[in-house]
């Protein structure tokens, strides 16, 4: 069985991701269907005294997977917008990416002393 | 209008060649040599709707963008079998800010692929494609040097192979030869019949996960909830992680790939789980 940490922590992280999503939609996250669905699902599976409750583990795994999806999409999009969303880079920018600078030629290109 | 994004909205199987003689409308464009900027990013559609909601129809759950029903690229009605999946898809559409970025909408993409089936594959072909990965399974190919990586693979991959052998009662083994391990026919049959127990929706998700992780064993690990998605992605990229530790991490290549792989794997796993579960509401009997 996968160790996923505490379900409460997963729920909190999920709500944080939903807040990012709702900020884009411009609405409070409590109005989102996803929020209501998650809240109900977590509430329905809360009451159990079993040491290992299969249904609860399944729900928790699903929640953790969804959290991974939302988080990774956000991080991937952030990197995409910084590095890949603006088309081809100029030679200076491309050199800067790997920590290099273009050589300076005092007399312009093709100048030979 | 939908035709435009058609190509971008499917989860293409890895075998299908993605090359086309003319770049798709809206796709990246290459201009003639000699011009200053040769590559411009693909154009994206604007967010043309305000509210996203779901409703229950005859064939399942549907997505509404304002008052229009969401359609697939082939103009079929977009319906999904599970409410939770519909909510997740609706959340994807809701999280698009100004432009619709199809590459962030993995669940929508998977649903479209099942509904339209652009590669025209039936269930048997899907299963065959999935089991074929076992012959070249990532975790079955080991290296002989460098010593650090050999040990890492032994410590991380061997428990996974052992788990799969025990869980499915089969023989898998591993190899350091370029030809890979000899997988007995019985092992393949076992996996074939196991995969056949899933429905087409779930199977599409599983096949997608396998194609991402390049490993049937790791994929069954996440589908059976044995390891979390992050762990499966880590194990799939073990050699890359080893090289990163040695040579350093490059954000715009390594992290970019990592997050994309994680997002795709998580989407496929969630999709498979949501599509294969029956009603999960079970009331506990009260005891005095």
Offer a quick outline of the entry:
The complex is a heterodimer of chains A (113) and B (288). In chain A, 60% of the residues lie in helices and 0% in strands.
Describe the structure.
The complex is a heterodimer of chains A (113) and B (288). By secondary structure, chain A is an all-alpha fold. In chain A, 60% of the residues lie in helices and 0% in strands. In chain A, helix 1 (7-25) crosses helix 3. The longest helix of chain A has 30 residues, at 54-83. The N and C termini of chain A lie far apart (71 Å). With 288 residues, chain B is an alpha+beta fold. Chain B folds into two domains: 45-116, ATP12-like (2-Layer Sandwich), CATH 3.30.2180; 123-276, ATP12 ATPase (ATP12-like fold, Orthogonal Bundle). Helix content of chain B is 47%, strand content 8%. Chain B has helices at 83-94, 106-116, 123-135, 147-168, 185-196, 200-213, 216-223, 229-236, 238-247, 251-276, and strands at residues 29-30, 39-40, 45-46, 52-56, 61-65, 68-69, 79-80, 99-100. In chain B, the strands form three sheets. In chain B, strands 4, 5, 6 and 7 form a four-stranded antiparallel β-sheet that branches. In chain B, helix 2 (106-116) packs across helix 6. Chain B is globular. Chains A and B meet through helix 1, helix 2 and helix 3 of A and strand 2, helix 1, helix 8 and helix 10 of B.
């Amino acid at each position: 069985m996968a160790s996923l940490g505490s379900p409460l922590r997963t729920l909190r992280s999920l709500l944080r991701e939903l807040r990012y999503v709702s900020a884009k939609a411009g609405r409070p996250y409590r109005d989102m269907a996803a929020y209501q669905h998650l809240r109900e699902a977590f509430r329905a599976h809360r009451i159990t005294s079993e040491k290992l409750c299969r249904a609860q583990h399944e729900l928790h795994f699903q929640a953790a997977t969804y959290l991974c999806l939302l988080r990774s999409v956000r991080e991937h999009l952030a990197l995409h917008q910084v590095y890949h969303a603006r088309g081809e880079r100029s030679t200076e920018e491309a050199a800067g990416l790997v920590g290099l600078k273009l050589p300076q030629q005092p007399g312009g290109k093709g100048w030979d002393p | 209008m939908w035709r435009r994004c058609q190509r971008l909205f499917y989860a293409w199987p890895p075998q299908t060649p993605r090359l086309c003689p003319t770049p798709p409308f809206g796709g990246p464009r290459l201009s003639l040599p000699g011009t200053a900027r040769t590559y411009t990013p693909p154009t994206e559609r604007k967010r043309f709707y305000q509210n996203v909601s779901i409703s229950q129809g005859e064939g399942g759950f549907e997505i509404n963008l304002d008052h229009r029903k969401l359609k697939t690229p082939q103009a079929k009605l977009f319906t999904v079998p599970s409410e939770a999946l519909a909510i997740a898809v609706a959340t994807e559409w809701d999280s698009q800010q100004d432009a619709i970025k199809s590459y962030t909408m993995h669940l929508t993409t998977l649903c479209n692929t099942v509904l339209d089936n652009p590669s025209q594959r039936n269930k048997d072909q899907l299963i065959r494609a999935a089991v074929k990965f076992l012959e070249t399974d990532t975790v079955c190919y080991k290296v002989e040097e460098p010593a650090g990586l050999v040990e890492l693979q032994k410590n991380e991959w061997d428990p996974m192979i052992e788990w799969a052998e025990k869980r499915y009662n089969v023989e898998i083994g591993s190899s350091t030869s370029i030809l890979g391990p000899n997988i007995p026919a019985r092992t393949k049959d076992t996996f074939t019949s196991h995969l056949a127990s899933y429905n087409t929706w779930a199977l599409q998700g599983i096949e997608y996960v396998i194609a991402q992780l390049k490993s049937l064993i790791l994929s069954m690990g996440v589908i059976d909830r044995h390891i979390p998605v992050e762990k499966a992605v880590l194990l799939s990229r073990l050699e890359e992680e080893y090289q990163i530790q040695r040579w350093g991490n490059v954000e715009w290549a390594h992290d970019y790939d990592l997050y994309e792989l994680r997002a795709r794997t998580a989407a496929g796993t969630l999709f498979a789980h949501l599509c294969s579960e029956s009603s999960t509401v079970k009331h506990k009997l009260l005891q005095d």
